[in-house]
Amino acid sequence: MKNSNNINDSALKRLIKDKEYYEKECKKIKEDLDLTTNDEYRMRFLKESLLENTKALTEVLKEIEFIEMGKKVRPDLDYDL
Q1: Is the pLDDT of residue 1 over 50?
Q2: Cα-only R_g, the chain
Q3: How many angstroms separate the CA atoms of 30 and 43, rounded?
Q4: The model's pTM
Q5: Which of 30, 44, 58, 70 is within CB 3.0–4.6 Å of 79 for a Cys-Cys bond?
Q6: Which GO terms describe its biological process (predicted)?
């Protein structure tokens, strides 16, 4: 099932890129939040953006864990999401 492993690897690469993107976004938002002090609307917007990006990052991490766990248990199956 070599084709299945290639699909799993490409899915994992995509998820890792997504993970890196959300980590960078969270870091940028946190930095912006630290710099924003007087604008309550901006702070609320940044907090909501941070929450959304954190949720997305959590989902990506769950998907990565699922694929990696599946590859250990049944390396012959396709775990592409």
Answers
A1: no
A2: 17
A3: 10
A4: 0.74
A5: 70
A6: post-chaperonin tubulin folding pathway; tubulin complex assembly
